[in-house]
Amino acid sequence: MSDNIRFIQGNEACVEGALYAGVEFFAGYPITPSTEIAERLSQRLPENGGKFIQMEDEIASMCAIIGASLTGRKVMTATSGPGFSLKQEAIGYACMTEIPCVIVNVMRGGPSTGNPTHVSQGDINQARWGTHGDHNIIALTASNHQDIFSITVDAFNFAETYRTPVILLLDEAVGHLREKLIIPEAGELPIVDRLRTSLGKGVDYHPYLPREDGRLPMSDFGGEHRYNVTGLFHDMWGFPSNNPKVVNELLRHLVDKIDNNIESITRYKEHFLDDAEYVFVSYGSAARSAIHLAKTRRARGEKIGVLELQSIWPFPKELVREKCADAKAVLVVEMNMGQVLAQVKAAVRKPGRVFLANRIDGKLITPSDIKKLLRVIQGRGV
Amino acid sequence: MSRVRLVFTGSGGQGVITAAIILAEAAVIHEGMNATQSQSYGAAARGGSTRSDIIISDKEIDFPEVTQPNVLVCLTQESYNSYSSIIRPGGILLTDSRYVQITRKVDAKQIQLAMYEKVMEIIGKPVVFNICVLGALISITEVVKPKAVLAAIVSKVPKDFIELNTQAFELGMELGADFSW
């Protein structure tokens, strides 16, 4: 028996991925169904020389990780819907100040305190537009523990590479499910470390002056350089500015730095798509049901495939258009009222052929839920 | 059998979830199989009905919930009443004679054992009832090797309680010895 095999919850797989990626600081406030992330890290972080703080609430947790990141640490927080709502203002601050951080949202039923112990995927649009103002964001997701592990590593890597908050959208079903995880060896997955300025002490450091490749080297706050950080629009020194040119350029930079790299950020898996006549587009735990159905129908000769999205924002429009181009019909399988459906409809050439297979009652959507709709679309009755 | 679907049901505090985790962990860590374990629960901290679904397979497991179990364990009358009808034809339905009164016929092999009574008589500690149930289940169904379950128990249970749990597991194995699937 290899000692890198675990039988754990999805939330714990996320913790293992975060540790592999080099997380050093976690601040959070426990909330179902994300609590196991805080619980495991409260034990694992101190063992590995990191710091864990349980804060007074989710707002403080979000602010704490932003501060810790600025001092040079890889940081994370974890929450669910109500806590994710509270974190939005500070997420906007991290977008504006370009401070790397990872925010895990293990989705449960909402709005409000909603359905705490049951699954939902209702926070897709909140991840994109929860904070105010034009901005950009990266949001990732996964359907099984091996993928949760690697997508968590990606989340940390993207946060560092693009200097942005990255939202990791897990859900209750996969977060609490126990299954196998094989921990990769060190070096097996690439790790992006903090890009620090090479400027020494006493040399003027401009925190928002990009290098030629567009990246902004950081200087650990409280260390060798004094600089200003503000949520106001700011110049290359980090000082507030309402100069129209400065405002215009900074806002475009915040949006473009992610949109221009959509190909590097896009993460997905395809299952039997090559000759698929019917394509399921799905993600998170819902994708497990879509894949299950595709496999069982394939065994009976039906040409069904699954496009499993692992990056939701920026939405991989080109990818979806290409993979759905030859489909007779596309079924978006998700546990909300059609949040990804809207994106898929906007992406494909024939939006009239895109249908929603959803479930919003707190139960994991089943293969037979999807099958019923598929049969209607195929003109075969229920 | 390449895929076995099990559902364990009972009430909060009986150790239904723990038994499910130990079984699935034994399959994954100690037998190199794939397994998933999931559970449904409400906002209450204790009491109420508990259900845990386990799938053990040599293939990948996508949809992790069980709609028709091959093996169903009911440890309360309420859970028996709610779930006995979902058993897959030809499956095994295991109940405890202290908690469950059999009221209907199902298209499966019904096995009623005095597990709770024997645990109290021989070990005297109700806390290991769940492990005795697991022992009986393994003896009857052989879904995972007893050795693998014992190894999982050793890795999950606090050191001082290993002997007690091992004893309960072996007691369950004996109780189930006369039955087969």
Compact overview of the structure:
With 382 residues, chain A is of the alpha/beta class. Helices cover 38% and strands 20% of the residues of chain A. Chain A has 13 helices and 15 strands.
Word description of this protein:
The complex is a heterodimer of chains A (382) and B (181). By secondary structure, chain A is an alpha/beta fold. Chain A is built from 13 helices and 15 strands. In chain A, strands 2, 3, 4, 5, 6, 7, 8 and 13 form an eight-stranded mixed sheet that branches. A five-stranded mixed sheet of chain A has the order 10-12-11-14-15, sandwiched between helices. A two-stranded antiparallel ribbon of chain A has the order 1-9. In chain A, helix 4 links the parallel strand 4 and strand 5. The longest helix of chain A has 18 residues. Chain A is globular and about 75 Å long. Chain B is an alpha/beta fold. Chain B has one domain: Pyruvate-ferredoxin oxidoreductase, PFOR, domain III (Pyruvate-ferredoxin Oxidoreductase, domain 3, 3-Layer(aba) Sandwich), CATH 3.40.920. Chain B has six helices and six strands. A six-stranded mixed sheet of chain B has the order 2-3-1-4-5-6. In chain B, strand 4, helix 2 and strand 5 form a beta-alpha-beta unit. In chain B, helix 1 crosses helix 5. Chain B is globular, with a radius of gyration of 15 Å. At the A-B interface, strand 9 and helix 10 of A face helix 1 and strand 2 of B.
